[in-house]
UniProtKB/TrEMBL annotation:
Protein name per Swiss-Prot or TrEMBL: Dehydratase
InterPro entries documented for this protein: FldB/FldC_alpha/beta
Highest taxon above the source species: Bacteria
Family to which this protein belongs: Belongs to the FldB/FldC dehydratase alpha/beta subunit family.
Length: 406
C-alpha cells in the first residue's frame, strides 16, 4: 500500500525526527522510542500483508488479549497522528458528518476511508460502543464502507457498585471478553497460558514505568514532553513490538539511574499533570518545555497498580479494568489525579480534550472546580485529534499558565 502522508502529517513526522535527533540527542532510549513511533503503522501494514492478524484497536483493556492471540493492534491514537485535514474533509463532505462532530470521530473515519482507497491491509476495526453516540454512527458508516467492525459493550462501573453487583459486572465483562475473542480468532476459547504471559509482561512494564516516573522526579528534563507522552501511550499498545518497547523502558531506567542529581534542574522544573488524550498539535509540548514545565504526572494510562496474577487471566483483565480509572465514572480518574498531585507536588493541571466532545468538556469542568477548591490551578485545553498546527491563542494560553505557576 502506498502510504502518502499529507503535508501536515509529514510535518508532524519531521517534528518527531527533530525531537529524536536534536531534543533527545542525549537519550538513546528515547531515540529508539521515536523509531518505534515512526515505524508503527507502516510495519503493521506490512505485517498485515504478510498474513499476521492486524486490527485497528481503540480499546485499551483488550491489548494484552490481542497480543496473546498473536495479533497486532494499531491504536486509534496513531490514526490521529497520520491523519490531517484531508481526512476531516472526507468525513464532512463524503460522509456528511456535521462540522461540529468531534475531531476524533472525523479524523479516524476519514483516515480509514483514505487508507481503504489506497489498499490498506488492515480492514478490521475494534471500537467501543460505550464511548459515545458519534462513534456509534461512525461504526455503522465504516461497516457500510466494507470494514469488519466489532464493538465492545459498556465497560462502566458506576460509583457505589460493590459486593454482588460488582461481581455480576465482572461476570458480564468476562463474557464480553470471550465474545471479543470469538470475533478476533473465530473461537470463544481463550489461550489462557498466552494471556497470562501477556499479563506478566504488562505488569513488568508498568513497574518499569513507575520506576521511570520516580526517577524523573530527580531528572525532570531528561525526557521532554513529547517523549514522555509517547512513552506513556506506548504502555497501552507497545507500537506493535512488545519486546522492543520493553527494551526502551529498560534502557531508560538504566539511563536515568546513571545520572547525577542536578538540584538546579529539579528546582527549575514546574511539575505538571496531564489528563485526557494526547494532543496531536506537537507545538503544545514544545511550549510546555520552553516555559519550564515538566509533565511528571499522567492519568490516561493506568500504570499505578498491577493486574492480579494469581487468578484466572480473563477475570484478571476484567478486574483490572473495572478497578482502574478507565472504568468510566470521572470519580475514579479524579482519585488518581489526586494521588498524582501529592506524589509530584503538582503545581498545575493540564486538562486536555478534543474539540466537539461534550462528554469531555463536562468532565473537565468538574475537575477544574474540584481542584480549584483545593488550590490546584488548571488550564482547560481543546485541540484536534488529527495533526495540525496549534492556534497561536492556544500556545499563548499555555505559556501564560505555566509562567503564572512559576
Ligand atoms: S472524544 Fe468524546 S465525542 Fe470524541 S470519540 Fe471520544 S468520547 Fe466521543
Amino acid at each position: 500500500m502506498s502510504t502518502v502522508l499529507t503535508s501536515e502529517a509529514q510535518e508532524q513526522l519531521n517534528h518527531i525526527r527533530y525531537s529524536r535527533d536534536t531534543v533527545h540527542a542525549h537519550s538513546p532510549a528515547i531515540q529508539k522510542l521515536f523509531n518505534l513511533v515512526i515505524d508503527y503503522v507502516d510495519d503493521a501494514e506490512k505485517a498485515g500483508k504478510n498474513g499476521t492478524k492486524v486490527i485497528w484497536a481503540g480499546v485499551p483493556w483488550a491489548m494484552p488479549l490481542i497480543y496473546s492471540a498473536g495479533a497486532i493492534p494499531v491504536a486509534f491514537s496513531e490514526v490521529g497522528r497520520i491523519s490531517g485535514q484531508e481526512a476531516i474533509t472526507v468525513s464532512e463532505d463524503y460522509y456528511q458528518m456535521p462540522a461540529e462532530t468531534c475531531s476524533m470521530v472525523k479524523a479516524t473515519a476519514g483516515e480509514w476511508h483514505l487508507r481503504k482507497q489506497a489498499g490498506t491491509s488492515i480492514t478490521r476495526i475494534f471500537g467501543s460502543s460505550s464511548g459515545c453516540e458519534p462513534y456509534n454512527l461512525a461504526w455503522e458508516v465504516m461497516k457500510k464502507e466494507g470494514f469488519d467492525v466489532y464493538t465492545s459493550d459498556v465497560v462502566y462501573r458506576a460509583p457505589g457498585v460493590e459486593g454482588e453487583r460488582y461481581e455480576e459486572l465482572v461476570r458480564y465483562f468476562v463474557d464480553e471478553i470471550h465474545d471479543f475473542n470469538e470475533w478476533l480468532t473465530g473461537s470463544r476459547e481463550i489461550d489462557k497460558e498466552s494471556l497470562h504471559r501477556e499479563i506478566v509482561r504488562k505488569n513488568y512494564l508498568m513497574r518499569r514505568m513507575r520506576e521511570i516516573m520516580d526517577l524523573r522526579l530527580q531528572h525532570p528534563f531528561h525526557v521532554k514532553s513529547l517523549g514522555i507522552m509517547y512513552l506513556m501511550n506506548g504502555l497501552t499498545h507497545y507500537f506493535g513490538k512488545p519486546e522492543e518497547y520493553t527494551e526502551v523502558l529498560d534502557a531508560l531506567v538504566e539511563e536515568l539511574s546513571g545520572l547525577e542529581t542536578d538540584e538546579a534542574e529539579r528546582q527549575r522544573a514546574i511539575p505538571l499533570i496531564w489528563t485526557g488524550g494526547s494532543g496531536q498539535e506537537f507545538g503544545i509540548y514544545e511550549t510546555i518545555d520552553d516555559a519550564g514545565g515538566s509533565l511528571l504526572g499522567f492519568v490516561s494510562s493506568p500504570y499505578t497498580r498491577d493486574f492480579p496474577e494469581d487468578i484466572d487471566p480473563v477475570e484478571s483483565v476484567a478486574r483490572f479494568q473495572l478497578q482502574s480509572q478507565m472504568a468510566g465514572a470521572s470519580i475514579y480518574r479524579r482519585h488518581v489525579i489526586e494521588q498524582q498531585v501529592d506524589r509530584i507536588q503538582a503545581r498545575g493541571l493540564i486538562l486536555y480534550g478534543y474539540l466537539g466532545c461534550s462528554f469531555g468538556s463536562v468532565t473537565r469542568e468538574i475537575y477544574r472546580d474540584y481542584f480549584h477548591n483545593k488550590g490546584i490551578p488548571s488550564i482547560n485545553l481543546e485541540g484536534t485529534f488529527q495533526v495540525g498546527a496549534p492556534s497561536g491563542q492556544l500556545l499563548t494560553r499555555i505559556k501564560a499558565f505555566i509562567e503564572m505557576l512559576s
